[in-house]
């Protein structure tokens, strides 16, 4: 599929996809004329990259993960370690946001009482 088709299927813009390729997060096949050619596997991989970014994983860490992924299944244990470490980070962020939400709710409660 073309980069335009991948954009439609993933919701990720062509500019971003080219950036991912330039940074080595995606390794793209080329057709006989040198045009990018994406596969079904690329769709899921690009979606996964987006999910990692959405959870706050840094591009440098996604790059390490991507390199290991492209090396093959013998790197599964190392990739699992990366994901476990990132999960700890996400949990810590969630705890912080829960605390921020509690503080915000407390302040809202103060103002609601003042207005009554």
UniProtKB/TrEMBL annotation:
A Pfam family of this chain: MerR_1
Query: What Gene Ontology molecular function terms does this protein carry?
Result: DNA binding; DNA-binding transcription factor activity
Superkingdom to which the source organism belongs? Bacteria
- Is Ribonucleoprotein found in the keyword set? no
Give yes or no: UniProt keyword Protein biosynthesis.
no
Supply the alphabetized keyword list: DNA-binding
Q: List residues of the HTH merR-type domain.
A: 1-68
Query: What name goes with this protein?
Result: DNA-binding transcriptional regulator, MerR family
Species per Swiss-Prot/TrEMBL record = Eubacterium callanderi
């Amino acid at each position: 599929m073309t980069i335009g088709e991948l954009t439609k299927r993933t919701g990720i813009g062509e500019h971003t996809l080219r950036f991912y390729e330039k940074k080595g997060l995606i390794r793209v096949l080329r057709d006989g004329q040198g045009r990018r050619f994406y596969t079904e596997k690329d769709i899921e991989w690009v979606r996964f990259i987006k999910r990692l970014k959405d959870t706050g994983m840094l591009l440098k860490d996604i790059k390490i993960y991507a390199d290991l992924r492209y090396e093959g299944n013998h790197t599964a244990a190392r990739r699992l370690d990366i994901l476990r470490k990132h999960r700890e980070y996400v949990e810590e962020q969630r705890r912080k946001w829960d605390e921020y939400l509690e503080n915000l709710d407390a302040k809202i409660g103060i103002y609601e009482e003042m207005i009554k």
